[in-house]
Automatic annotation (TrEMBL), chain A:
Keywords: Amino-acid transport, Cell membrane, Membrane, Transmembrane, Transmembrane helix, Transport. Belongs to the binding-protein-dependent transport system permease family. LivHM subfamily. It holds the Pfam family BPD_transp_2. One of its GO terms (molecular function) is transmembrane transporter activity. It is a multi-pass membrane protein. One of its GO terms (biological process) is amino acid transport. GO terms for cellular component: plasma membrane. InterPro entries: ABC_transp_permease, BCAA_transport_permease. This is Branched-chain amino acid ABC transporter permease.
Automatic annotation (TrEMBL), chain B:
Residues 1-27 form the signal peptide. The keyword Transport applies. It comes from the Bacteria. Residues 30-377 form the Leucine-binding protein domain. Coiled coil: none annotated. GO terms for biological process: amino acid transport. SUPFAM superfamilies: Periplasmic binding protein-like I. Belongs to the leucine-binding protein family. Keywords: Amino-acid transport, Signal, Transport. It comes from Marinobacter maroccanus. This is ABC transporter substrate-binding protein.
Amino acid sequence: MLAEFLQYLFTGITIGATYALIALGFTLIYNASHVINFAQGEFLMIGGMATVSLTAMGVPMIVAVVLAVILAGILGIALQRFAIAPAKQADVVTLIIITIGASIFIRGIAQVVWGKEYHVMQNFSTDQPIQVFGAVLNSQSLWVLGIGAILVVGLVLFFTKTLIGKAILATSMNKEAARLVGIRTQMVLMLAFMVSALLGSVAGIVVAPITFTSYDIGIILGLKGFVAAAIGGLGSGVGAVVGGLSLGIVEAMAAGYISSDYKDAVAFSMILLVLFFMPRGLFGAKVVERV
Amino acid sequence: MFKTVIRRAGKCAAVAAASLMMMSAQAAEPIKIGSFLSVTGPASFLGDPELKTLEMYVEKINEEGGVLGRQLELIHYDDVGNASSARNFASRLIRSDRVDIIVGGSTTGATMAAVPLIEQAQVPFISLAGAVVITNPVKKWVFKTPQTDRMAAERILTDMKDRGITKFGLISGTGGFGSSGRTQTLEVAEQMGMEVVADVTYSGSDTDMTAQLTNIRNTKGVEAVLNFGFGQGPAIVTRNYAQLGMELPFYQSHGVASDSFLDLAGSSAEGLRLPASPLLVPDSLPDDDPQKEVVQNYKAEYEARWNSKVSTFGAYAYDGLMLAVRAMEEAGSTDPEAVRDALENIKGYVGVTGVFNMSPEDHNGLDPESFRILEVQNGEWKLIN
């Protein structure tokens, strides 16, 4: 009984941690520009696929991971520079549509470069699962949770302790005012895209040994990450983490105790319920209309 | 002066004669083979090898002189795995390209969307998709080359029974392939007096099936587990199965019978069994197996031409094209009615997928034994029976 519950919990937390990392990426860019970046899932895919193909070429794992993350970072900057920046006068909806276009473009390129097959990545450490009270835990899950936690702490420090982090926060609060005090807002936007691409690619890499990776893995994971961000309240870092974890756990519990047929239905009912009673999400900012 | 005029006239005559001859050669119009396949999109792993196979063998047949003294012309469209575009392309093949026969339809959805049009237009159609609904009930103009999922279920359950298993857990994908396979498995199990004690599903995009497998593991009386699905899902199921340390006999369906599945599932696949085309084990087939030569040739030719691994799905297209050619040769024309009748009466055609014996009641022509039961041993397929 306990073993069963623990098993579902482990499954949920692992996948939930991934959702949380993706949701954080959404949150970052949303904060900086109010754009929902639907190419977020593609960063995840780039991370996983680049690592797999580099290791296949004989590059050591660690180097491959670093290179893949750098590649994703460059892609994030390129996305902002070449797709978002040229349309700076456009309204938010247009920008969101641009990100959808960009995601299709990136996916297309990936399909041509890496093919359409699924690829495997080896576990970072042992393949041997860990037994906990009768439930089994994939050792890779610990990596996902550990790296997820480090990233979250790192992000918090980045935003509260560094000047650049504060500049991003300032831009998100009031772009005009930020510009007036000398913050280069275009630069900040680019940074936000880069950091969120880094986050996404790391998530893609740590989760790839569990989920496999392919050129289209970003679609569904990106969407789930967006759901997590919306549940938590778009724009809230805590919300993204809580939203991601709770989405993952609810999904796993639904699959285990009710039926896997209703798994997605339960997850999406959850977002309906949350948004119905708390329209700005669990941790969404209180908005005061100023007249 | 006079001589040169004569010489010129001679030249002109020669040129005219030559061009006349060329014209008459052109007059034997090519036989048009139409095809709509899911070359890109989610079902591209089906359509891509299918198209490559068709292109390659149409070329080869043309080099060898064509069919009935006429060249073959392949007209194909990519339906991107979308049933409504499959229907549109089928309509274009019939109405504007006026093809003589259609070999295509990578997925059951695409095939079934095109069937009503094709039945109405009365063009022979050989489908490359799996589900049993395509040829059962029999449709006058529709044939298919892959075995049905029902045969796969029969083959797996027979193997279980041989091992003394009567109660098993079923985990299936919610996609078309998985859910049709699930229905067939439940029916076959009932017929064979076996019991499905656990019945869970997962959706194609799921990334972890530990919860579902835990559910099966905790069900009383489970003696084996069967996973019906395709894509990466079954590979994840296989890995989770190993991680959970489950040691019951484990079966997969023919949906994942490919080398890429072995790559994905890795050492977790050790010991699992599945029904598959002999194409996976061309060299371990016994020498008296009639299919051995066909299978080996197809594999060698495909891999030499495309420099990529051969797939079971491409073999469906090979059999489809060869059946079409054979029917036209036997009919002696491309008259749709005659070709259809010839197709229906093909007996003993030895293909890559199996030995086809068509009849008016059976437009598939294969029996469950055309599947071989394979087991994964030391990371490779091993022929069991």
